[in-house]
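Let's practice the habit of predicting before peeking. Look at the sequence and jot down your guess about where helices and strands might fall. Then scroll down.
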Amino acid sequence: MVNTLGYNNYMGSDLDIFVDPFFLGFERLNHVVDSFHKTYNEQNKYPVYNVVRKDEDNYIVQVAVTGFSKEDIEITVNDQDLVIKGNAEKDDTVEFIHKGIATRAFTRTFALGEYMEVTGAKLENGLLSVNVERIIPEDKKPKTIKIK
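Done guessing? Here is the structure:
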């Protein structure tokens, strides 16, 4: 497979950094990362989610949590990971003829980049929205040096 730069992709991966001619010998690592990503995604499909980019520094992680209440969901930030857990109490008083809305326990983990902070969350119409913002400290922002 040849990507848009004309380099051969190893195993058809979309990780363009590994096909850069300056990264020699990374083809095996590319294959390992690609197969881990495929396996992980096949095993972790519940609940479904979106990641929305509002602008360069603001994102929203949307998780479909129909059937869960605010009390059933726990959101934590641990190290550089955003962890969303859901555990709905079963109601044994209800007899289902058909149960198509899954409310099984889940854990979703999202890796946060440097300076990324969770700034809020809301649950509305079965959709959990978690706001994530890049907040760069003043001493880490680019500076313009005036020439004398």
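How did you do? The mean pLDDT is 81.
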